[in-house]
Amino acid sequence: MSQRIKLFQGTENSCGYLPDRLALNIYADPHHPNPGGVYNQLISRGFRRSGEFVYRPACNSCKACVPVRILVNECRLRRTDRRNLKLNQDLTVRYCKARFTPEYFELYQRYLAERHAGDGMDNPTPEDFERFLLNPWGDTVFVEIRLDDQCLAVAVTDATSSGLSAVYTFFDPAMAHRGLGRFAILQQIALSTEMNFEHLYLGYWIEGCNKMDYKADYRPQEQFDGANWLRVD
User: Fold this and answer.
1) CB 100 within 8 A of CB 134
2) β-pair type (65-71, 221-224)
3) Domains, the chain, ordered by start
4) Is the alpha carbon torsion for 155, 185, 47, 38 positive or negative?
5) Nearest to 172 by CA among 231, 68, 88, 96
6) Class of residue 173 by CB neighbours under 10 A (exposed 0-12, middle 13-18, buried 19+)
7) Shortest CA distance to 1 belongs to which of 53, 40, 52?
8) 52: CB partners within 8 A, 6+ apart
9) Can you give the pLDDT at residue 37?
10) What is the reported pLDDT for 160?
11) Residues 6 or more apart from 171 whose CB is under 8 A from it?
12) What's the per-residue H, E or C state across 75-144?
């Protein structure tokens, strides 16, 4: 059942994905009495979660952020996916409670120092970790990827009424040759199938942004045009 939700506009900031552009988000009312219900309702309208905040881009002069979700029941492994699974067949995958631990935080620090140096995300505090990845009302699991007793990657994954949502993945930058980001998506697809979900939400694909190119690789998928989800094969 749909509910009335107040939306609030944020302030413009420099875009972190496309140069020389400004980014603007709108946010669902953070004081709504049923924030989990708000999230369940709005994720199918192109919204995402960051910490306890539910948001979507609402830039004045740019529509580059396109919400994407994989149709998991029809998704077929590509040759590159099979190579990735074979390369990582020595890894163990576990589904763990979303929480802060020193092990997770140390891995998160190393990932941001390598992948986001100088962009404001690096050098995080434990509070930054919790504020960004956790939330007090959601149904969140950490897809934990390990090599023996070493944690190599964590895929932060939300369960919503219409599918799983890939919130964020961080991994050991020294193991980049393993393709751990893609391996994590394959595990989230498998978990979606196991839980009988039709969709895995990947967030925003941005044409022209190399960091987001991988999101277009998983087919068939649906892309949200602001009103409807349109199939892309």
Assistant:
1) yes
2) antiparallel
3) 7-65 (no CATH), 68-232 (3.40.630.30)
4) negative
5) 88
6) middle
7) 40
8) 30, 35, 135, 136, 137, 138
9) 95
10) 97
11) 107, 111, 145, 152, 153, 154, 180, 181, 184
12) CCCCHHHHHHHHHCCCCEEEEEECCCCHHHHHHHHHHHHHHCCCCCCCCCCHHHHHHHHCCCCCCEEEEE
Residues of the chain below pLDDT 70: 1, 120
HSE at residue 160, side-chain half, CA atoms within 13 A, is 28
For the stretch 83-104, pLDDT in tens is 999 999 999 999 999 999 999 9
In Å, how far are 5, 39, 97, 212 from 33, measured between CA atoms? 10, 12, 24, 34
Burial of 209 (0-12, 13-18, 19+ CB in 10 A): middle
Phi, psi for 168 (deg, rounded to 5): -165, 145
Q: Give the H or E element holding residue 150.
A: strand 150-160
Reported as type and span, the H/E element at residue 171 is strand 163-171
Tokens linked to 163: 């599918």
Residue 1: what pLDDT? 60
> Whats the size of the chain, residue-wise?
233
3-state secondary structure of 36: helix
